[in-house]
Write a structure and sequence with these properties.
Elements: H1 28-38, H2 41-46, H3 50-59, E1 62-66, E2 83-85, E3 92-96, H4 101-123, H5 146-169, H6 174-198, H7 205-222, H8 228-248
Parallel strand pairs: 1-3
Antiparallel strand pairs: 2-3
């Protein structure tokens, strides 16, 4: 897909929001690094199954490069990455330069879920919840509106599945350990937030079908064998995140 750093209208002027860095223009060195990032990404993405390749090929239309978060030193790899999608720009992904092929594959899995769910919601209402930011999300420090939690659970469920399959496909080593850790954390995060969606009376019949599908997918993941040390750390991570969230909210129980 095109790496679009030229079109002056590639992102609306009001696109600034938390989690996004500025739109950037690429020099020759940055384009070469993006080319290197693509190398190996298809194989990593394919570890999640042929459907991950299929949905990426079908849904993705262009990639808009973002500036790296936290600044960048010339000639050095980016210090981190950020990404996102826009509901009004179907098929477009905004992303800073990924650190490696696995990180880029994760970004594509993550953002394609937002693209799919936004398109489905445009066709049929999935819930009637209000915009008040009041829900605990284990991947964010701030309260989230129901729709943000809805999108977050859906995308993290796919990430948990992809990291599990990626871990199984890798030989023993640091990459495999990283994949197990990421899978365990995503799985526990979904488990902490999914009951709020399932128990909501704001779901439409279509939304209820999607929620039940997420429960089925999550239940299947919980049956997977995961190294005990990674699972224990993931459980502790989510518990700590919940405690910190409660502290910031003045003791209000997360919903």
């Amino acid at each position: 897909m095109p790496l679009d750093d030229l079109d002056p209208y590639r992102v609306p002027h009001h696109a600034d929001q938390p989690g996004f860095t500025g739109i950037t223009d690429l020099d020759d060195l940055a384009r070469k690094r993006w080319g290197a990032a693509w190398s190996g990404t298809a194989a990593a993405l394919g570890h999640g199954g042929p459907h991950r390749i299929g949905e990426a090929v079908t849904l993705l239309r262009c990639l808009v490069p973002l500036a790296p978060p936290g600044g960048e030193t010339a000639g050095e790899p980016p210090p981190g990455s950020c990404s996102g999608t826009r509901r009004e720009a179907f098929g477009a992904v905004l992303s800073s330069e990924p650190p490696d092929a696995a990180g880029f594959a994760e970004t594509l899995v993550h953002e394609t879920q937002h693209i799919k769910l936004a398109a489905l919601a445009a066709l049929t209402p999935l819930h009637h919840a209000g915009p008040a930011p009041r829900h605990f999300a284990p991947w964010r420090p701030d309260p989230r509106p129901f729709d943000g939690l809805w999108h977050g659970v859906y995308s993290h469920l796919a990430l948990a599945d992809w990291w599990l399959r990626h871990a199984r496909a890798l030989p023993p080593g640091p990459g495999r350990e990283r994949a197990w850790a990421e899978h365990a954390r995503r799985r526990e995060q979904v488990g902490a937030a999914l009951p709020v969606l399932v128990g909501s009376d704001a779901l439409t019949p279509a939304g209820r079908t999607v929620a039940e599908g997420m429960v089925t997918a999550y239940t299947r993941l919980t049956h997977a064998e995961v190294p005990a040390d990674h699972l224990a750390r993931a459980v502790a991570y989510v518990a700590t995140t919940r405690a910190l969230w409660l502290q910031r909210q003045g003791g209000t129980h997360p919903s």
